[in-house]
Here is the input.
Amino acid sequence: MIEKLTGRSFLTLLNYTTEEIQKLLNLAGELKAKKHAGIVFEPLKGKNIVLLFEKDSTRTRCAFQAGGNDLGMNVTYLGPTGSQMGKKESIKDTARVLGRMYDGIEYRGYKQETVEILAEYSNVPVWNGLTDLYHPTQILADFLTIIEKFGNLKGINFSYFGDARNNMGNSLMIGAAKMGMNFTAVAPKELWPNEDLVKKCREIAKETNASINLTENVEEGAKSADVIYTDVWVSMGEPEHVWKERIDKLYPYQINKKVMELAGKDSIFMHCLPAFHNRDTIIGEDIYNKFNLPALEVTEEVFESSQSVVFDEAENRLHTIKAVMYATLGDDK
Here is the structure.
């Protein structure tokens, strides 16, 4: 039985059942169809939400802001210097203040603990736009994209290349286990997901007939994959020696033409963006000058290929985030 989603926070997919995740995906598909048909749908008119960002973003901010506006809501954005949270005011106090002014709170920042505290003390739905451990709204967008390309999630062979212990590796593994997908982390052993989380996901996978696999072998990870997924190798702001160490470890796991050929012509390439696939950015050019590499986690050839669905994913951030807000703030029946 699917519980009502109204009033609930969205902090990690661990807190949602397979049926509830599917419900959000179905709702996202309906909202996308309305948007593409030009149908104005403002069921949350008069509500107010706040976007609390400790880390800058393009897709997450725009999806929450445009999505909130689409649903009829008033949206306030507080950037990295826009509030006193954690500086002059505790997270608990900030939560209690914002909870009296707003109907919902989005948080994007550093610690999972922060978004958990906001949810506990605000008494309104709180949505995780990214923390150190999880990125659940991105996973909904990814899964909606896979459904659009393959018609289903169950039984999909999903391979994640790169740093599999980060928030994306964690969240994709959880989501795959919940939705009956065969998840493979393809990474150096020291960058495999946390053992306790792997164990938990394997327990979930038993109930959904999914599988959780870990390998250092690129050919093994790519062969017969329906989805090849990767993410950036280094977070912004980390010192140069970290970049060199991470590039040395992960360069063998770059997604290139050979990897996609191992997967097969019907496979798709996914990336949550931004991606270092060429020299057309300040950081991309800096990487080239320092390491003599024109691309990092994915080559330009793959990124711009017909198998790449990265911009479908990016658009689907809007529709899936709208579904989360509507389901948790609206009249969920």
The longest strand covers residues 48-53. The chain has a mean pLDDT of 95. Residues 310-329 form the longest helix (20 residues).
